[in-house]
Amino acid sequence: MKDDAQEPTVPFRQFLLKIHSRCNLDCDYCYVYHAADQSWMRRPLRMSQATVDRVASRIGEHGRAHALPDVRIILHGGEPLLVGAQRLDDLLATLSGRLAADVPPRFSVQTNGVLLDDEMLDVLQRHEVRVSVSLDGSRRAHDLHRRFADGRGSHARVTRGLRSLTAPDRKHLFAGLLCTVDLANDPVETYEALLAMAPPRLDLLLPHGTWDAPPPGLEHRTVPTAGPPGPAGGAGSSADGGTPYADWLCKVFDRWFGAPARETGIRLFEELMAGILGGSVRSESVGLAPVDLVVVETDGTIEQSDSLKASYAGAPETGLDVFRHSFDQALERPEFRARHVGLDALSGTCAKCRLAQVCGGGLYAHRYDSLNRFANPSVYCHDLAALIDHMRSRIEQDIARSLRTAGSSR
Amino acid sequence: MPNPKDPSPAIGHPLPAGLAGLSGADIDRLAAGNTALAHVVRRVAAEAAEPSNEPRAPFESSIQ
Question: How far is residue A153's CA from residue A151's CA, in Å, rounded to a whole number?
Fold first, then answer.
């Protein structure tokens, strides 16, 4: 990893606001409540009006300074809809009103879907807030993890909310579904259960884990990969213990890729495909695009991406807050600058890897171990390599077939 | 400026060997057989033809 002190920075374009720090579900894999970082305990329940006012001023200031054409504001939690419909309406009106002169906001919310009723949806519709919902597949798959504190599954409530969201007059607000992969669930059944909700886009997330605390199914991966994974089928192409996440994802990929018409977008696949084809990869979980997202907690503290909470206690912290610091000051922090330097931010192993431009070292949080911190490949390194190699092979086959067809018809 | 509908002059770097020389007509043919792939091929072609400062894809926010 090189010294990044002189590298130019990319302004923030995405502001993730934690408007409520608690949740009405108690999902056992949640990085906010069940991972290394337990900072939620000391946060205010809700973002106060004074903090919202200050956040709006800071975003406007940042938008003006960088002449941004727009910004994305993502409402998040905990469960953001716990603030209630009236408070949500007020909060969105404040942000829209205060930003109008500086930089147009585009709103979205990430919700567990339990509180998506008509009253809430009317507010979201009034402010044109795009809605992403967390759903893990079939009722059985979803209720394995996504439960209320008393142990009841949330699938029935979530699908009821989704039905309201996908009614004809509101369907345009539906941004997509977010699903956390569980190896215990059948991959194709999971995909088809998600597809039944007609999402415009799916996000398939790998469960959070690090080299210090590997994810389920990869418990043996406790020592960071010493060298890049070899080419498919060649020496060093497979990892000890196999690549169960690649196996799972490849089954979904084959089902999705082989459909007669594109059924939905799957961001992980489409970003990796873009990288395989030589294009840019723009996702937090894969690729080398600079991070343009910043988090504001309910108390106004400025933090890095939330997923770092899975790494170690305090990992996302910057020591800054919106009352005393601008977002430009946050940009100067080494934690953010380190995420703006592409290949130079990767470990020595990743920098030598044939797939570095595509996988980009994987999600930053998944690289962590207490010895090298983030200067490692992802704990999913071999799975990502196996998935990319599989996808590349399928893409090459389809393109070759297309060219053969073209040749025979010319 | 290259035509985004015809990515062959624009797509660069580490392409699968089979993609080199693909024309707009080839992509239309590809789309008829695999629209998921054609969707991404068109995106890559358009980006290569007209680089932009568009931000990263919306954050895949979280596990709640």
Answer: 6
